[in-house]
């Protein structure tokens, strides 16, 4: 029998990036409102596909990450009034997501400088959530979710912000946890330059990374590439990024480098690895390893 | 050393792999020389056990229920929670001081293939069990030491026999361990010959990598052509660490090999214990850091290694010759310096000699480097003006009343554990998951 | 060895067996279906009944304004998925969701707009049911009551069936249900006396509740056709029920006459609940709201309260009543321990085991040759017994791999094979050939046609199949004629 699938969606809600994205100078301007309406149609399509499909939505806001919607528990009691023309679960998602995003945006207010989006927090929360539903523990009170329902968990990241090199290590750790949980991370780059880390995330977890070229066709992209569970992807192919950048971020300037220097002291004895930048691009190899504070011999 | 004493207490319970529920991460925390103490304790315990049980086959049936105890209601709930709490406590007690680890590891696995390995005191035979565990060990070892390499040498009929060359590919190593008939035990073992062979295969290695020899030894004799103590001195000089897992009994020379080179020595009491002491050698060996006060220049071996992070070519790219095998291939990796195409990473570029690693390979070791701070147990809800209703990570709703279980250290009656940095509350499962798997706090994002 | 081959086919059984309703829908005319697709709730429900590939294809096409060339779509199909893709397209054409065209792929415009509307909401079709306002005076039924009600109704039906053969007198379901059972061939009255369960009825009992429900509903649909009910109305009402929210009351006002008449029938089956027969409001039960969810492969614990996600498991949990999880432990010595106090489950088990002891919460029995043969005689197949035991296995059993002891599985199959020692085939016996040469000549010809079932060289006769007779006879006649 076909199994139900679980989808965790992570929405990058950086106000600055969305503002830039909506600029009419773009070839295909995309405002957050249009984006949300198309995204909601996609989410509804996921719920529509199977009665048991579950859905969790996290938002990555500047400096924090929030749970926007979870199909296992209702966050608020204000169930929208029924109307005869719409299917209740769809309405629940739509109203919850839109309302909470608006609330969060209002709460942000005017800031001098926008802190970077907490994408890492959202990804790790999604992992914890998936860990919870796939490994129901006996210690929780009450009846846990049925262990025999194996969800086919997936994470979909809708990213608009560029790579944040300081989040390199946590993202990498998250990727390895995803591999351990045998889940797929899909990435849709809605706006902004390609992100190397998310490319690696999709590649290492066997997901697909899509750079949205025709942003007016967002919904079609979402449905064609990210709706199908892994079992269907063996029959109907999904687009994949072929060329993968395996670059890392250096520890000293947080630059993404393709040739780095790795402190062998760290490798052989201390806690830290040092990757300093490429000679030609930035700095000389550091005389002192910035993390282990030991002198280094320039090769 | 108060913490260590407590550590010992629960180590007693944990000597069987069956019940090591909560990751072996903390085992790494053990310092050098600690293994010795633990071994002694285990041996004491072994003696005690020997009185209780007459036959080895009874052993596997007698332990599991010793560790859990029912509460008054006959439920195991308390026992399970207690086990989880132990895991938590262990983490809290993990030494906070800097530990030096080796990330690029080179290991030679020395397998005893002498007639003594056909002994049936471990089922089915020592030899079969050793092969089975060795395979599991290799898989686990590569998982935790992605940049490492393993070579395999056998001791058979008085000589050392090279079974597998040093390789960074787990499949290669597993392949040479898979052919049982090729490894059929016979004759006497020779420690000296085998160690010399292992030593020579590691002599060329650069200084930044560790050199280790792991001996699985079932015989009680060794037949050597010369003075084995000379070999031992040479190993000490070459900074080769020798660890021995003995299947029969402790031999003076095996003990000396480990003590002098800083390795671990263990005698396996039964199948489960064999696996335990073998797998204790999986995590990178830790050394107490040379006091940091030494400051710059304290370690003359420090140097920077240049590493390249390649670009992966898509499967659909036009085929071209690779630098390593001169084969026509479409897929491959481009060396970032000389743009030569190589088939696989990690490797040294055949053209410019640059060490090419894929960054995920390196990154796999990072969680050793940046562990998440242990969460604090929320023991009292008083004075909390505003509390979150649900776990910050998985949105599980916290119970509002304290659990009735007996309070013990490391368990929160409210099921809440708080990150010292971001002050968010997490549930028990997420606490364990965050520290054992993700290695990244969902609240702070690092 | 036959046993082996049986086991193998078990594994190969296609993962996604098509839903039983689909063939029925495919047999309907295009106009009927198009009328059905006008309602968004029907589109959504039918969409859910389809297989995963069909669903993905529909979604791919849903938001396209123009048709897609078939080549573009099939470019996405991996070589190993070609067959699955083709059969998915056939299903879609059969349902008139996509017109039959080898060049262009597009959705039926009615279906397209219906499903779009379902997903985005809006429109004014009111196809998801008109909810009533909260009634302050009377408390509406809560979810537990609805579950209890549905369970009681459903088990009454099943219990009636299972105990009909044993001379007991359980509560009779209503006349409508009895008629339906009789019509569907699950029960029949042989001598004008009380209804007796038939062999297909026995098989029915071992199905999962989800299958049972659809089985009955399909019969209901067939019956509706005969009763001159408008099929579109009937179907769309069922689909509407399946998209309703559990524990809510809906108004009967917007329903058509046909649908109001249906309410009465569905109440008998336990699909809807009404306070009074004349009540202006009704609530769907879990049986109804989970119609379009696939029944989970294994019975499961009851869903946690308020958990929407786990609703799908409800239907199964419902029928197993008190023991919400699996309750059967089967040992290698053919002993069965069933932790249940549910008379229905006991009765069903009694179909194929010999009872040993009964305790308040435990039934102990044996699988014996006699008991299994009795079941086989009733028309239950070995596979059904095995799948029943598998689905209802106790959680403790789930740790075993394979779940059921292999010896027992094989033995049940062997007992079934025992019954199949004789195979009958119609045909003709050819004998009294004049000469050995004649005989061999004709036999060789018959063998060429592959129609020989049995031959005996010594007696100079052979047995051919019915359809080969004309050829063989013609051959013999031509031969005798020429001589």
TrEMBL record, chain A:
Gene3D superfamilies: von Willebrand factor, type A domain. One of its GO terms (biological process) is regulation of DNA-templated transcription. GO terms for molecular function: zinc ion binding. InterPro entries: TFIIH_Tfb4/GTF2H3, vWFA_dom_sf. It is found in: Nucleus. It holds the Pfam family Tfb4. Its main location: nucleus. The keyword Zinc-finger applies. Keywords: DNA damage, DNA repair, Metal-binding, Nucleus, Transcription, Transcription regulation, Zinc, Zinc-finger. One of its GO terms (cellular component) is transcription factor TFIIH holo complex. Belongs to the TFB4 family. Component of the 7-subunit TFIIH core complex composed of XPB/SSL2, XPD/RAD3, SSL1, TFB1, TFB2, TFB4 and TFB5, which is active in NER. The core complex associates with the 3-subunit CTD-kinase module TFIIK composed of CCL1, KIN28 and TFB3 to form the 10-subunit holoenzyme (holo-TFIIH) active in transcription. Component of the general transcription and DNA repair factor IIH (TFIIH) core complex, which is involved in general and transcription-coupled nucleotide excision repair (NER) of damaged DNA and, when complexed to TFIIK, in RNA transcription by RNA polymerase II. In NER, TFIIH acts by opening DNA around the lesion to allow the excision of the damaged oligonucleotide and its replacement by a new DNA fragment. In transcription, TFIIH has an essential role in transcription initiation. This is General transcription and DNA repair factor IIH subunit TFB4. It comes from Suillus placidus.
Automatic annotation (TrEMBL), chain B:
GO terms for biological process: DNA-templated transcription; nucleotide-excision repair; regulation of transcription by RNA polymerase II. A zinc finger (C4-type) spans 335-352. Keywords: DNA damage, DNA repair, Metal-binding, Nucleus, Transcription, Transcription regulation, Zinc, Zinc-finger. GO terms for cellular component: transcription factor TFIIH core complex; transcription factor TFIIH holo complex. GO terms for molecular function: zinc ion binding. Residues 29-46 have a biased composition (Basic residues). SUPFAM superfamilies: Cysteine-rich domain, vWA-like. Its main location: nucleus. Gene3D superfamilies: von Willebrand factor, type A domain (3.40.50.410), Zinc/RING finger domain, C3HC4 (zinc finger) (3.30.40.10). It is found in: Nucleus. Residues 106-257 form the VWFA domain. It comes from the Eukaryota. PROSITE patterns: VWFA, ZINC_FINGER_C2H2_1. Belongs to the GTF2H2 family. Component of the general transcription and DNA repair factor IIH (TFIIH) core complex, which is involved in general and transcription-coupled nucleotide excision repair (NER) of damaged DNA and, when complexed to TFIIK, in RNA transcription by RNA polymerase II. This is General transcription and DNA repair factor IIH. It comes from Suillus placidus.
TrEMBL record, chain C:
Keywords: DNA damage, DNA repair, Nucleus, Transcription, Transcription regulation. Component of the general transcription and DNA repair factor IIH (TFIIH) core complex which is involved in general and transcription-coupled nucleotide excision repair (NER) of damaged DNA. Component of the general transcription and DNA repair factor IIH (TFIIH) core complex, which is involved in general and transcription-coupled nucleotide excision repair (NER) of damaged DNA and, when complexed to TFIIK, in RNA transcription by RNA polymerase II. In NER, TFIIH acts by opening DNA around the lesion to allow the excision of the damaged oligonucleotide and its replacement by a new DNA fragment. In transcription, TFIIH has an essential role in transcription initiation. InterPro entries: Tfb2_C, TFIIH_p52/Tfb2. GO terms for molecular function: ATPase activator activity; double-stranded DNA binding. Residues 410-476 form the Transcription factor Tfb2 C-terminal domain. PANTHER family: GENERAL TRANSCRIPTION FACTOR IIH SUBUNIT 4, TFIIH, POLYPEPTIDE 4. It is found in: Nucleus. It comes from the Eukaryota. GO terms for cellular component: transcription factor TFIIH core complex; transcription factor TFIIH holo complex. Pfam families: Tfb2, Tfb2_C. Residues 284-304 have a biased composition (Low complexity). It comes from Suillus placidus. Transmembrane segments: none annotated. Residues 284-311 are annotated as: Disordered. This is RNA polymerase II transcription factor B subunit 2. Belongs to the TFB2 family. One of its GO terms (biological process) is nucleotide-excision repair.
């Amino acid at each position: 029998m076909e199994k139900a699938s679980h989808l965790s969606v992570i929405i990058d809600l950086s106000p600055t990036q969305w503002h830039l994205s909506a600029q009419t100078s773009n070839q295909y301007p995309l405002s957050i409102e249009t984006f949300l309406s198309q995204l909601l149609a996609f989410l509804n399509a996921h719920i529509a596909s199977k009665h048991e499909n579950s859905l969790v939505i996290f938002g990555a806001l500047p400096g924090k990450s929030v749970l926007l919607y979870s199909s296992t528990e209702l966050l608020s009691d204000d169930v929208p009034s029924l109307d005869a023309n719409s299917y209740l679960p769809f309405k629940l998602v739509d109203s919850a997501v839109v309302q909470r995003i608006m609330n969060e945006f209002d709460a942000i207010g005017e800031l001098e400088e926008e802190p970077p989006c907490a994408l890492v927090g959202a990804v790790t929360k999604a992992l914890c959530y998936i860990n919870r539903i796939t490994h129901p523990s006996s210690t929780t009170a009450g009846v846990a979710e049925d262990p025999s329902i194996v969800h086919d968990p997936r994470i979909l990241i809708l990213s608009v912000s560029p790579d944040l090199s300081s989040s390199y290590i946590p993202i990498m750790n998250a990727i390895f946890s995803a591999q351990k949980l045998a889940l797929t991370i899909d990435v849709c780059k809605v706006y902004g330059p390609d992100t190397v880390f998310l490319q690696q995330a999709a590649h290492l977890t066997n997901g697909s990374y899509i750079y949205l070229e025709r942003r007016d066709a967002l919904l079609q992209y979402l449905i064609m590439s990210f709706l199908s569970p892994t079992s269907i992807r063996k029959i109907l192919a999904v687009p994949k990024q072929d060329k993968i950048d395996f670059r890392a971020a250096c520890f000293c300037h947080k630059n993404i480098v393709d040739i780095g220097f790795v402190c062998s002291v760290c490798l052989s004895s201390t806690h830290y690895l040092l990757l300093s930048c490429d000679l030609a691009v930035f700095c000389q190899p550091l005389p002192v390893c910035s993390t282990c504070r030991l002198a280094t011999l320039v090769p | 050393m108060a913490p260590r004493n407590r550590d010992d207490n629960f180590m007693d319970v944990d000597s069987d792999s069956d019940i090591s529920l909560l990751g072996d991460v903390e085992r790494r925390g053990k310092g050098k020389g600690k293994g010795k103490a633990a071994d002694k304790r285990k041996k004491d315990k072994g003696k005690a056990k020997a009185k209780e049980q007459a036959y080895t086959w009874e052993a596997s049936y007698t332990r599991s229920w010793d560790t859990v105890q029912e509460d008054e209601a006959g439920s195991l709930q308390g026992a399970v929670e207690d086990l989880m709490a132990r895991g938590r406590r262990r983490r809290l007690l993990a030494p906070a001081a800097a530990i030096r680890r080796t990330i690029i590891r080179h290991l030679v696995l020395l397998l005893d293939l002498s007639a003594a390995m056909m002994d049936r005191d471990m089922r089915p035979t020592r030899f079969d069990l050793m092969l089975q565990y060795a395979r599991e060990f290799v898989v686990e070892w590569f998982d935790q030491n992605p940049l490492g390499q393993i070579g395999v040498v056998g001791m058979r009929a008085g000589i050392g026999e090279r079974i597998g060359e040093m390789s960074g590919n787990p499949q290669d190593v597993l392949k040479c361990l898979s052919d049982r008939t090729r490894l059929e035990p016979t004759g006497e073992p020779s420690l000296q010959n085998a160690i010399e062979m292992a030593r020579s295969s590691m002599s060329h290695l650069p200084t930044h990598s560790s050199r280790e020899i792991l001996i699985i030894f079932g015989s009680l004799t060794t037949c050597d052509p010369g003075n084995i103590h000379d070999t031992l001195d040479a190993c000490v000089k070459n900074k080769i660490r020798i660890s021995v897992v003995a299947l029969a009994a402790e031999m003076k020379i095996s003990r000396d090999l480990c003590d002098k080179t800083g390795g671990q020595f263990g005698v396996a009491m039964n199948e489960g214990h064999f696996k335990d002491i073998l797998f204790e050698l999986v995590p990178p060996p830790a050394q107490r850091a040379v006091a940091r006060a030494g400051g710059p220049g304290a370690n003359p071996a420090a140097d920077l290694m240049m590493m390249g992070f390649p670009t992966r070519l898509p499967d659909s790219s036009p085929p071209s010759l690779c630098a390593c095998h001169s084969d026509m291939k479409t897929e491959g990796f481009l060396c970032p310096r000389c743009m030569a195409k190589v088939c696989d990473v990690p490797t040294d570029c055949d053209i410019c000699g640059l060490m090419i690693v894929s960054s995920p390979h390196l990154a796999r070791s990072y969680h050793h480097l940046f562990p998440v701070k242990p969460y604090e147990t929320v023991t009292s809800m008083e004075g909390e003006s505003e509390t979150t209703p649900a776990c910050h990570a998985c949105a599980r709703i916290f119970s509002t009343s304290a659990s009735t279980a007996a309070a013990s250290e490391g368990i929160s009656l409210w099921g809440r554990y708080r990150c010292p940095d971001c002050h968010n509350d997490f549930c028990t499962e997420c606490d364990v998951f965050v520290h054992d798997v993700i290695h990244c706090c969902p609240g702070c994002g690092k | 060895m036959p046993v082996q081959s049986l086991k193998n086919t078990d594994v190969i059984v296609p993962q996604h067996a098509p839903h039983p309703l689909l063939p029925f829908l495919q047999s309907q005319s295009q106009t009927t279906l198009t009328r059905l697709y006008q309602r968004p709730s029907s589109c959504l429900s039918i969409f859910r009944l389809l297989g995963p590939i069909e669903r993905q294809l529909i979604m791919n096409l849903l938001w396209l304004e123009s048709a897609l060339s078939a080549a573009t779509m099939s470019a996405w199909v991996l070589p190993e998925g070609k067959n699955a893709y083709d059969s998915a397209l056939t299903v879609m054409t059969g349902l008139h969701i996509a017109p039959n065209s080898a060049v262009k792929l597009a959705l039926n415009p009615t279906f397209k707009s219906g499903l779009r509307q379902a997903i985005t909401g809006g429109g004014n079709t009111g196809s998801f049911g008109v909810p009533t306002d909260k009634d302050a005076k009377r408390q509406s039924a809560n979810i537990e009551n609805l579950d209890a009600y549905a369970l009681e109704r459903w088990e009454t039906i099943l219990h009636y069936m299972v105990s009909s053969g044993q001379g007991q007198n359980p509560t009779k379901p209503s006349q409508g249900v009895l008629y339906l059972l009789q019509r569907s061939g699950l029960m029949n009255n042989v001598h004008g006396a009380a209804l007796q369960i038939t062999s297909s009825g026995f098989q029915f009992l071992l199905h999962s509740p989800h299958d049972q429900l659809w089985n009955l509903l399909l019969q209901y649909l067939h019956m509706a056709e005969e009763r001159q009910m408008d099929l579109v109305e009937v179907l769309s009402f069922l689909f509407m029920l399946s998209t309703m929210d559990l524990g809510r009351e809906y108004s009967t006002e917007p329903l058509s006459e046909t649908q109001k008449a249906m309410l009465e029938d569905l109440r008998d089956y336990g699909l809807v609940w009404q306070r009074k027969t004349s009540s202006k409001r009704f609530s769907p039960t879990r049986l109804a709201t989970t119609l379009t969810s696939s029944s989970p492969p294994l019975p499961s614990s009851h869903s946690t309260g308020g958990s929407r996600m786990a609703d799908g498991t409800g239907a199964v949990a419902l029928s197993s009543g008190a023991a919400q999880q699996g309750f059967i432990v089967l040992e290698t010595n053919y002993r069965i321990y069933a932790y249940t106090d549910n008379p229905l489950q006991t009765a069903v088990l009694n179909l194929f085991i010999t009872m040993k002891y009964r305790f308040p919460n435990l039934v102990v029995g044996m699988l014996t040759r006699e008991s299994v043969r009795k079941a086989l005689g009733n028309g239950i197949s070995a596979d059904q017994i095995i799948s029943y035991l598998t689905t209802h296995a106790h959680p403790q059993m789930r740790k075993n791999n394979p779940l059921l002891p292999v010896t027992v599985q094989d033995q049940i199959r062997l007992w079934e094979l025992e019954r199949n020692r004789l195979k009958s085939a119609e045909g003709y016996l050819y004998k009294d050939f004049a000469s050995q040469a004649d005989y061999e000549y004709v036999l060789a010809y018959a063998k060429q046609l592959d129609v020989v079932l049995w031959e005996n060289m010594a007696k100079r006769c052979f047995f051919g199949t019915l359809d080969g007779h004309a050829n063989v006879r013609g051959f013999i006649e031509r031969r005798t004629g020429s001589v």
